[in-house]
Specification:
CATH superfamily of the largest domain: P-loop containing nucleotide triphosphate hydrolases
Order of helices and strands: EHEHEHEHHHHHHEHHEHHEH
Helix content: 40-55%
CATH topology of the largest domain: Rossmann fold
CATH architecture of the largest domain: 3-Layer(aba) Sandwich
Strand order of the largest sheet: 2-3-1-4-5
Number of strands: 7
Shape: globular
Strand content: 5-15%
Length: 305
């Protein structure tokens, strides 16, 4: 038996790391280690990259992500954000006797794409410094994959070139509803979750029938933020070095000390970004209206500067 109660299945750059941490701190559910197992994705997905996955290793391997399970747990949960777009994840979860609750946190897609681009550019150092957000949006809208391939490194390249598809949320949510039933899908708005995290946690707990533990949730605490990197060349070298080091608490400590010197938290907004955001808002406007109408969520704040 796989006691998987909850999957935070998307979307990337929509506050899922914070939501995962709040549920870890304020429920009796056992979180996966790491947060994003990517285990249910297709074997060909760039985030799998030859590692074991459900289609090749089955559910028995999946238990390894929960070997730290604590006594009295009310079940497992994980948070792989690309499941939103994955037919393999839907197939896997349909094989369970009782599929888990699937939570999707959705954000203004223009803002999500802006965040994804800057995360890849600064945190991952995967985007050439000469390639601006405005250049990127123009390539997306024009369908010019050659520009994206020229300026963006893998695996970020394959993800960033599909951002228009990834931002058309309705088609993906609808596929999940058809696969598991609408009653197993809970859609949250990123903007509301960040503003009132306790309400989001309570909604999830009520849907699961579990209790949220007491204690305040600080909405100002940021998890997995985008950093504005001061010295990109140094950062690329640091990332290569970090990939050679084994995981451990000391590595996390070094990372935090390094980012305190090298990075600045906060929204990365260049003067030229406004034009790209405006183009994206115009593109997504009809898709957002369709999402609001069919799913019954208020996205009226989306599309506003």
């Amino acid at each position: 038996m796989i006691p998987l109660r909850l999957v935070i299945g998307g979307a990337p750059r929509c506050g899922t790391s914070a939501l995962f941490q709040w549920l870890t701190d304020h429920t009796n559910l056992t979180p996966s280690k790491p947060k994003e197992t990517h285990f249910l994705l297709e074997p060909s997905h760039p985030l799998v990259a030859g590692r074991p996955c459900w289609e090749t290793h089955g559910w028995s391997w999946y238990r390894r992500f929960f070997e730290h399970e604590h006594p009295g747990t009310e079940g497992w949960f994980e948070g792989s954000t690309h499941y939103l777009y994955s037919s393999a994840a839907r197939r896997a979860l349909k094989t369970l006797d009782k599929p888990p609750l699937i939570v999707f946190s959705l954000r203004d897609p223009a803002e999500k794409i802006h965040s994804s681009f800057n995360y890849a550019k600064h945190n991952w150092a995967a985007v050439h410094q000469r390639f601006s957000f405005d250049d990127y949006v123009r390539a997306l809208i024009d369908g010019d994959k050659s520009e994206i391939q020229r300026w963006i490194s893998p695996p970020a390249r394959s993800i960033l070139q599909r951002q228009l598809e990834y931002g058309r949320y309705l088609e993906h949510v609808r596929s999940w509803q058809e696969a598991l039933g609408s009653e197993r899908i809970l859609v949250l708005l990123f903007e509301e979750t960040i503003r009132e995290p306790s309400t989001a946690v309570r909604r999830i707990c009520n849907a699961l029938g579990v209790k949220a533990t007491s204690g305040p949730i600080d909405p100002r605490r940021r998890v997995n933020p985008t950093y504005r990197i001061r010295f990109p060349r140094v950062h690329r070298g640091a990332l290569r070095l970090a990939s050679l080091l084994p995981k451990g608490p000391w590595k996390s400590g070094i990372r935090q000390a390094y980012l305190a010197l090298q990075g600045q938290k906060g929204r990365v907004l260049e003067a030229r970004d406004a034009r790209g955001l405006e183009q994206l808002r115009a593109y997504f406007a009809p898709h957002n209206r369709a999402l609001s109408s069919e799913i019954g969520i208020d996205v009226s704040a989306w599309g506003k500067p």
